[in-house]
């Protein structure tokens, strides 16, 4: 009886070790995160609508078929990135994600000015330069400090009917995602 008890305890211990080991190994076994998967769309510095069907239809997890989604990958190595997107009054959102896919900022159509949202994504060390530049601008911009140098932005637009999808896809792809203009130099 004691032998059986010992075998059960050893078996449970080994099962626990295997279980914990497999959970810890998941990130290294699945190295392609959403940022890497979006490379298939060539969405670097521009918005590209995610396809509704085909091989690239499942690039992002938990896709809702009621939404048209466009993605843009950004890299802050060369400086801040400005995102401008027109959002319909039905419902639209702009979400900024870090490289691994965790969202860290989002805006909806309720935050839009004249139907458009504009944000500047930058690194922590670029904030001071952006604040100096703000005095030259007519209005302050929304600045978002990114937790990582690379990430992606999603524009999600609600399609009330399937017939609205083509127009919303064109609207989503008309959003811009590119380098911010450098601050003007003063002599």
Protein architecture, described:
24% of the residues are buried. The protein contains 4 helices and 9 strands; from the N terminus they run H-H-E-E-E-E-E-E-H-E-E-H-E. The strands form 2 sheets. A 5-stranded antiparallel beta sheet has the order 1-2-8-4-5, covered by helices on one side. It has a 4-stranded mixed beta sheet with strand order 7-6-3-9. The chain folds into 2 domains: 1-31; 34-179, Immunoglobulin-like. The chain has 187 residues and is an alpha+beta fold. Helices cover 26% and strands 29% of the residues.
Summed up:
The chain is α+β, with helices and mostly antiparallel strands and 187 residues long. It has four helices and nine strands, in the order ααββββββαββαβ. The longest helix is centred in the N-terminal third of the chain and has 28 residues, at 2-29.
Please write out the topology.
Elements: H1 2-29, H2 34-37, E1 48-49, E2 67-75, E3 81-86, E4 92-98, E5 103-108, E6 116-122, H3 127-134, E7 142-145, E8 150-158, H4 165-173, E9 176-179
Parallel strand pairs: 6-7
Antiparallel strand pairs: 1-2, 2-8, 3-6, 3-9, 4-5, 4-8
């Amino acid at each position: 009886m004691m032998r059986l008890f010992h075998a059960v305890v050893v078996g449970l211990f080994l099962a626990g070790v295997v279980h914990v080991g497999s959970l810890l190994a998941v990130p290294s076994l699945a190295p392609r995160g959403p940022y890497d998967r979006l490379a298939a769309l060539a969405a670097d510095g521009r918005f590209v609508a995610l396809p509704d069907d085909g091989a690239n239809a499942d690039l992002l997890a938990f896709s809702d078929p009621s939404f048209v989604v466009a993605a843009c990958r950004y890299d802050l190595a060369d400086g801040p990135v400005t995102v401008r997107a027109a959002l319909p009054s039905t419902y639209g959102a702009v979400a900024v994600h870090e490289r691994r896919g965790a969202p860290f900022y989002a805006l909806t159509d309720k935050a839009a000015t004249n139907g458009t949202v504009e944000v500047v994504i930058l690194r922590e060390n670029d904030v001071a330069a952006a604040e100096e530049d703000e005095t030259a601008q007519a209005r302050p911009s929304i600045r978002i400090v990114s937790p990582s140098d690379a990430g992606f932005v999603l524009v999600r637009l609600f399609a009330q009917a399937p017939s609205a999808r083509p127009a919303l896809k064109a609207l989503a792809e008309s959003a811009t995602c590119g380098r911010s203009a450098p601050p003007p130099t003063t002599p």
